[in-house]
Please model this.
Amino acid sequence: MSPEITKRNGKVQVAPLRSMPSPESFTPVTPHLAISPTVSVVVPAMNEAENLPHVFATIPQWVDEIILVDGNSVDDTVEVAKRLRPNVKIVNQTGKGKGDALAAGFAACTCDIIVMIDADGSTDGREIISFVGALVTGADFVKGSRYAAGGGSDDLSPIRSMGNKALTAIVNKMYGTHYTDLCYGYNAFWARHLDVLDLDCDGFEVETLMNVRAAKAGLKVHEVPSHERTRIHGESNLHAVRDGFRVLRTILQEWRRQPTEPQPEPTAAPAADRGVA
Ligand SMILES: Nc1nc2c(ncn2[C@@H]2O[C@H](COP(=O)(O)OP(=O)(O)OP(=O)(O)O)[C@@H](O)[C@H]2O)c(=O)[nH]1
Ligand SMILES: [Mg+2]
Model:
């Protein structure tokens, strides 16, 4: 296979090409799409036994790995998860909060792509395909958005929606982003960008932290529309005012932090881009 030759500042640059994956290593995802990267799904769960059957039923069979991070549940969350998917990986959270749970779950992932969804039935696993589709077609980090055309929410109260919009506007102003939804728990990214995200927070500010760090590191961030449903059973763990202030503090603190350099993308170009028949 010939290397890719480009010119930068008048100098010829020769980038060695990785060989294309063999046809057998592609996973059929839809009748029109097969992908070679592997996909992990991370599900933070605290007392979600009643909701897991609904959530797991929506996770496509082509997903390679499901990681459930149990937040010391006092119900049958872990048993139900194992019954539904005997090969589910269980991570027992040692710290507290959703941010801590996601960090532990991401650290246990072994696949190329990581998708995070909630365990309360509000996020629909059938949308994973749009996140993966955006990643394999060029994005580094993909955010679900309830405000993008085609998205929506059955769950956002007027106060939460107002707070989210105000916080989104602050982030857009400070970090030059064009986000439409800041505080939403459905996101996906290439695992090689875990160092950029470098999660070090405990609570519901975790999505904001990820979105801000992705932007500061210059990652290509795409939004895909997502429809949020109401939690099926149980109580929300989020407190709008307390967690809103935690999000605001995170936005302000990140202003002073040096961004981490992202890992370069592997150098294989699709056959069509190289003019190969
Ligand atoms: N492992 C773990 N999971 C958590 C923790 N806190 C929340 N979660 C999970 O994170 C997901 C989102 O939490 P929710 O309580 O639904 O909060 P939310 O979705 O922001 O709020 P609602 O819109 O009211 O549902 C759910 O799957 C929870 O079970 C925690 O401390 N540990
Ligand atoms: Mg929820």
Remarks:
- The first strand starts at residue 4 and ends at 8.
- Residues 44-46, 48, 69-71, 93, 96-98, 101, 118-120, 122, 155, 185, 204, 231, 236-238 surround guanosine-5'-triphosphate (ligand 1) (CB under 6 Å).
- The domain at 36-258 is CATH 3.90.550.10 (Spore Coat Polysaccharide Biosynthesis Protein SpsA; Chain A).
